Amino acid sequence: xxxxxxVRFAPSPTGDLHVGNxxxxxxxxxxxxxxxxxxxxxxxxxxxTRVTDEYIAAAIDTLKWLGLDWDEGPEIGGEYGPYLxxxxxxxxxxxxxxxxxxKDAYYCYCTAEELEERRDAQKAANVAPGYDGxxxxxxxxxxASFKAEDRLxxxxxxxxxxxxxxxxxIRGEISFDHKFVPDFVLVRGDGSPLxxxxxxxxxxSMKVTHILRGEDLxxxxxxxxxxxxxxxxxxxxxxxxxxxxxVMGQDNAKLSKRNGEVSIAWYRDKGFLPEAICNxxxxxxxxxxxxxxxxxxQQLAELFTVERVNSSPARFDMKKLxxxxxxxxxxxxxxxxxxxxxxxxxSAQVIMGSDDEIALVKSALPIIQERITRLxxxxxxxxxxxxxxxxxxxxxxxxxxxxxxKEVLKRSxxxxxxxxxxxxxxxxxxxxxxxxxxxxxxxxxxxxSLRIAVTGSTISPPLFESMELLGKIVSLKRISSALAL
RNA sequence: GGCCCCGUCGUCUAGCGGCCUAGGACUCUGGCUUCUCAAGCCAGCUACGAGGGUUCGAAUCCCUUCGGGGCUACCA
Length: 485
Prior knowledge:
The chain has helices at residues 19-34, 53-66, 89-101, 112-124, 140-148, 195-205, 221-231, 264-269, 274-282, 297-303, 318-330, 334-347, 355-368, 378-386, 403-417, 424-438, 443-455, 463-470, 472-483, and strands at residues 6-9, 38-41, 105-108, 154-157, 163-168, 172-177, 185-187, 210-214, 240-244, 247-248, 314-315. By secondary structure, it is mostly helical. It folds into four domains: 1-80 and 245-328, Rossmann fold; 88-244, 3-Layer(aba) Sandwich (Rossmann fold), CATH 3.40.50; 332-385, Helicase, Ruva Protein, domain 3; 394-483, Arc Repressor Mutant, subunit A (Orthogonal Bundle), CATH 1.10.10. The strands form five sheets. A three-stranded antiparallel sheet has the order 3-4-7. A two-stranded parallel sheet has the order 1-2.
């Protein structure tokens, strides 16, 4: 029987989770779900100077919002917890101690300045820069004298001669000559562990079977494998690696704060749907293989395989995300669309949230559903229905004050005042017969003026539906106000 | 500089030796529809980085080259 698949997403929250992180999380999640395995969420907060509690909380919130549910991790715990590295410090310390006893690691007392000096010299001499092994074989006396000087030593892993070869599930066989993998630091001078130690120890102790992570970690893999060896892990028990291609910004540079908006929180505020973000991100570096692109999370879980992941980096394209977001919005049920739109209407202060307002929003949503790309467009689209101090937009003013428009408004006002049943069908029938047929006006001219008078803008939801929603009294009032302009 | 990864339309991709005069999606352009804006439908532009091989046959295999990226921390 095959081992159960255990995949982990292990971000280091030094900021809001961004597009690249989430793409990785999504693939981790999809792989775990596809294989009926476990999705483990672990927080790598060993760099206490950069990781904050707020970022950790935000990361948890973002994953939840996206629907990437985890089987083990923060808030729910699990058999191999804790899942915050800051709570596992003694585990790393124990291993580091063991490595020293085994002579796999050693104390190094070189100062940052000394190291930098020697690295510069190496560069100048055109030699691969890296730790030169100065402290590899310190005698007891030397160790004692450094300690007497109160120098803080780091723990360094001893890289033996040779090379490390592993099979990456996406890139195939990769090997690194140890000449280019210098002795690396496991534990800081203050005793805190570094990523390289913590990640390897945790992946082993949490029984992770597959590591799908960003390509930037590719060259740290031999170091990670070296730690497995020191831990005494058998080669057949190493996790399988798969290094995902980067998600790049528009200018072909790695996505970053400077490179457009990348934080998932930003997309959420802009009215992107979580399922749209996931759908789009799934297509960055992976494809189902056929010509289908619009898929659900469930389908992603069913279809996702590492074999179909690309090895080349992908550029992030906002236009395509928006297109997919529009598709997903159009696919929403009315109730779902309503529920998701309300927060945007409230925060834009278009509505306060009364039952009457919500009822009106609900009846208006169908006519704007196919006209928006993002949820944050809803307030602007529906504002005309709720505004207390209605006014025609500056730019459109001149288009309702000309004589032709006055004619249209005057005639419309008379016809509509006499209209009994107030439905979009009856409004349209009345207006078409009086303005188009009798006055012989072009529809876009006649209805254009009315649109501005009633909605305040040249762009609006369909006119007759809008008037029906507004109601007869308000509609007529706006037309007569426009006549007075 | 060194090591490693990557290279199909503007972008995301399909393609794993003949089905490719290279398919789909987004974008863009034109058209249809139309009360604006959208949506929808139709059409069009546009790609195998370059050069060598291997082969009856290469986008697919090999080599070189060029280009892009990552790493080279007591970051992850």
